């Protein structure tokens, strides 16, 4: 799906969302709204190259245009080829850097939130205190495009799970402020095993040492370990076939929601009201209210540390949709 953009017979719609996995999954309802509104268009998503597979799995993207920048910054340029996009949609931020990036491509139409720095672009007002999924659907609604924030689910992959029926525990996170201590994850893993659950540990690139610390504390060699960052097809199969998923507030939590797998997500610096799972009993968000923290900080957020292993175990063991061993 990835590759350089080229001219073609179909009109083209470019979406900018050059962020992480969780951001992509939170933007799926808006992407699907665009897919329905522009069925004849080629929809090109400007996003990191490693997101090509989940973008394709959304069913809303035809092609990925590799684009990224450190942190959550706006890419310096887009490797767009051929005529300007017929439509460009800014799902990256509220501008003006992301607005200017798209304007340089001279699209026929640009959809974005209004900003004083780019008064020539009409759009709705940006609201900071708004759930991420609802925000981008509201943007499209302002332009007359219907999008449902609850339109999140992915179809189950055709491949079998590498650990069917396991409780998947993902201790990693992009920032220290959203990373619950490894020794607490170890307690959760140990107790789940004691209750008879199969447990699978997952980690992204560079997180093998973290998984080792969890394993050492759990003192159980019967845990399935998937380190180094699984390819998306295997990761999707693992999550779709899992009994439950336990993680911090990171992209993995959004993947559990996408596959409808029961989950327990540990929130710290950011309220689940802004990034949490949809309402209902299937997805449990653990959080202690307080003033917002730094989601990109280096140390675990104090709200996150107020969550104990007993809280997580109770949420899992009492969960009405988590199968008993």
UniProtKB/TrEMBL annotation:
Entry annotated with the keyword Transferase: yes
Enzyme class: transferase
Domain of life of the organism encoding this protein: Bacteria
EC number: 2.4.-.-
Protein name: Glycosyltransferase family 9 protein
Comp. bias (Basic and acidic residues): 295-305
Matching Gene3D superfamilies: Glycogen Phosphorylase B
Positions in coiled-coil regions: none
Molecular function terms, GO-annotated: glycosyltransferase activity
Alphabetized UniProt keyword annotations: Glycosyltransferase, Transferase
Location of the region described as Disordered in the Swiss-Prot/TrEMBL record: 282-305
CDD domains per the UniProt record, alphabetical: GT9_LPS_heptosyltransferase
InterPro entries, per database record: Glyco_trans_9, LPS_LOS_Heptosyltrfase
Organism expressing this protein natively: Streptomyces lavendulocolor
């Amino acid at each position: 799906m990835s590759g350089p953009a080229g001219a073609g017979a179909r009109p083209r719609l470019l979406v900018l969302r050059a962020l992480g996995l969780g951001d992509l999954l939170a933007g799926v309802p808006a992407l699907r709204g665009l897919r329905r509104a522009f069925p004849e268009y080629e929809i090109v998503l400007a996003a990191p190259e490693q997101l090509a597979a989940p973008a394709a799995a959304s069913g809303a993207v035809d092609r990925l245009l590799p684009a990224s920048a450190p942190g959550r910054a706006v890419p310096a340029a887009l490797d767009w080829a051929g005529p300007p996009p017929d439509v460009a949609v800014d799902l990256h931020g509220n501008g003006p850097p992301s607005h200017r990036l798209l304007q340089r491509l001279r699209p026929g139409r640009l959809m974005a939130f209004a900003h004083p720095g780019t008064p020539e672009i009409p759009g709705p007002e940006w609201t900071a205190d708004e759930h991420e999924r609802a925000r981008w659907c509201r943007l499209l609604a302002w332009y007359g495009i219907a999008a449902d924030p609850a339109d999140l689910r992915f179809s189950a992959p055709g491949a079998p799970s590498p650990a069917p029926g396991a409780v998947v525990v993902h201790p990693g996170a992009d920032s220290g402020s959203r990373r619950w201590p490894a020794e607490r994850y170890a307690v959760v893993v140990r107790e789940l095993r004691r209750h008879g659950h199969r447990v699978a540990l997952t980690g992204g690139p560079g997180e093998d040492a973290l998984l080792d610390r969890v394993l050492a504390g759990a003192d159980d060699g019967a845990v399935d370990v998937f380190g180094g960052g699984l390819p998306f097809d295997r990761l999707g199969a693992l999550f779709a076939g899992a009994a439950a998923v336990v993680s911090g507030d990171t992209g993995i939590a959004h993947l559990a929601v996408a596959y409808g797998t029961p989950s327990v997500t540990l929130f710290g610096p950011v309220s689940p009201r802004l990034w949490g799972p949809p309402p209902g009993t299937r997805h449990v968000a653990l959080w202690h209210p307080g003033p917002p923290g730094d989601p990109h900080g280096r140390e675990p957020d104090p709200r996150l540390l107020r969550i104990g292993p007993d809280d997580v175990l109770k949420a899992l063991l009492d969960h009405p949709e988590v199968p008993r061993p």
